Amino acid sequence: MIHAAGGQAALKKRAGKGIIYILLTLASAALLFPLVYMVCNSFMESREVMKAYALLTGNSGISSDAKRLSIHLIPERVSLIQYYQALFRKPTFLVMFWNSVIVTVPIVVGQTLVSALAAYAFAKLRFPFRDQIFFLYIIVMMMPFQVTLVPQYITLRKLDLLGSHLAVILPGIFSTFGVFLLRQFMIRIPDEYSEAAKIDGAGHLRIFASIILPQCKGALASLAILVFADNWNMVEQPLIFLNNELMHPLSIFLSRINTSELGVAFACGILYLLPTLFVFLYGESYLIEGIQRSGIK
Amino acid sequence: MLALKGTAIKRKSPLQKGEALAWILFALPSLSGFALFFVIPFFMSLYYCFTEGISGTRFVGFRNFESLLKSESFLLAAKNTLIFNAVAVPLIMVLSLGFAMLLNTGIKGLPFYRSCFILPLVVPVASVILVWQILFNEHGALSQLFQLFGLPAVDWINSQWSVAVLVLLYTWKNCGYNMVLFLAGLNSIPREYYEAARIDGAGFWTCFTRITLPFLAPTGFFVLVLSFVNSLKVFRESYQLAGNYPDMHIYMLQNFMNNNFTNLNYQRLSSAAFLMFAIISLMVLVLFRLESRLGRDLE
Lengths: 297, 299
Hints:
By secondary structure, chain A is mostly helical. Chain A has helices at about 1-40, 45-50, 80-90, 90-125, 130-140, 145-160, 165-175, 175-185, 190-200, 205-215, 215-230, 235-240, 250-260, 260-295. The longest helix of chain A has about 40 residues, at about 1-40.
């Protein structure tokens, strides 16, 4: 009797496990679907893409099956023509890609550097109004870009930086997110080592460089990844501060290319997300740790 | 004054020596950038809120706020933002907690499933937005599915349904971040509590409401604040999906402000920005207050 009940419970448990696996697999499939779709379509010939999605461009008179937009995953013929076109026949694509790079890289390096220094001050030093200023940092961090739009515009105009990439880079470097995240890490580093070094005559710069930073390697990596992912995808700032469309990053360019040059759009999208994909594959564990730490007060 | 304060602090540890100057060295780059790009110009734009004219010379009191609150486009944007928040925030909270709990059942393949959830976080929306446009086009896959059941085709992105599409996009992008936070919270609950409760005959629901929820409250509050803050940043996704002039149902406060910027209407823009700043700060403050009170009750 007891035996039968135990067997039934085990069966129920296994059924429950099965349902959990099914749910998680379905959710994962849904989450990955857009990516898989892009990859599959990027290996189609431009002609096939144009035919399948003619309705998107408003040019529906091409063929009879253009009356609807079906999910289209398997290429009729696998081809690299889209990638070839994007990389060698569309100079604007490479220009925009380069724009994304020269905006994102300085922000990642600059914000990490400035934030590491400031986070040390906020976590380990005392100064007047320290906690009040840090509170202000958090408030500003939470604001959507549009709230700080006018203030930033005023400063950038005064500095005569509007229309240059610096107009996008500088505010990005001084974003307060990095200070917040790194302080969360540094505040948990025990003071004993630093105090010992201090007694041996080390200055704060030495302590920072040889004790704090080495313990924060993971934190710096996770900050760099989060800042990279955020700014590689930047939309609002260039839209407002850069009038010249040739200076826009890929994020803005792509939403325009989607309809006008559909034949290469899928490959462009894939090329655009490749850097973030590499960063993700390389640093997923840092990313997870960074997210978790952002939640600890 | 500074030096006086320095000497007033009692010597607590060797670390505090020589700090009077050290903090300047470390914090100055960040503080000066913060002042330059946020604090000082913030007060300058505050000045715009109460003036009139292109150079902002005439003082008009609260008239800018009055006309803002009467402006139909502002009210529409505020209403849409509110609706989006009211739908997206609870939905993403429930989904991310639900999936975190599923992942926390000790299943195999946790790293794989977790990766699937986090990946959208780093994938730029612009690179996959085409898929959304194909799925939710008037003649797209979803409409075809509808027609299969005899329902009319819908132009999802350019109708009242655009909110739903945007909510979906927001959830796709942000669910992973919240889920990782919830997973960490769930992991910190001692397993013995559940075992003890189960021996006492408690079912799933009792365990959930008596153990999981109370222990998860601090994480939950943080995720709530984060979801709220992130949902106000949804302009990015909305722009990618529908451009500068989206359907009126997803015309959000951010669209309102971007448009006023292109019209060079700084007074209206500053007033709206200030109002938003005040409301967001207030809401975040209330949430944190609520949390600390709840935390005290739990103890």
